[in-house]
Target: Lipocalin-like domain-containing protein
Amino acid sequence: MHFTFIATLLVLCSYQLVAQPLNGTWTGALVSPANASASLQSSVVLRIAGQQLSGELRVQVADKQDLYVLKGTTNGTQGQGTATYPTDGSVFQFETALQQNQLLFAVGQNGTAILSGTLSRSPTTAAAKPNTATSPVGNDGLYRDPNLIGSWRTESNYGGGVTDGGFYGSTSSTMILRADGTFGDGGSAGYASGSGVSVQSSGKGNSALYAQLAAAGARWFTKGNLFYVRLKVNGQMQDVPSSKYYVENGKVLLTDLKTGKKMLYVKVN
Model:
């Protein structure tokens, strides 16, 4: 992989590169070399562990935000790897490098840059000490996608067909994902109607399940596009991958890693 954008800037400015961390959140505009007038607001989150690099690229296109999962390697002030689009599994390549505390970033395919630009470090990630209220990395050292923090409701509908005699209904439950990694029960609700009678109900949702998670010291966290749960199993803490996730426009799609079952949640606050 060889992007002209990154390679040229490194040749011209290599003497200005200083030892600065790649990790953090970077924001700015990425443009297409084929259409420089098309400027897309973007953000890149980079996480470094030794020489391994992971993170996310988010590109704002009109009222839609596209997410790409980054994975690769780093060598000091430079990095490269793959950028995967979870929606359809498309794989792109990316290159990145630091120049005077600015991030040079390019993503493309077959050696040709599709988007490239210079990004600035986000002030919220420059603090030396992590704070669970503002940082996606909690005091336990686990990364949590900020877009997942909040209350999420899932709903299922049934009935309504001719064979159901006009009977139909729906059930919903709400899951709370807190910034410290703990879970909360947002309650449940149900509605049924048929033959001129309608019934509504509400409750505590899966209170027994959330009680078991709390007893096991469960904490949720994310790696790339995977949702993990760290909890105590047989007296030992284990990190259990639960599902793939894709979040966009206040909705998150979870795909169970064992069964492949998909569940759609809508953010309620």
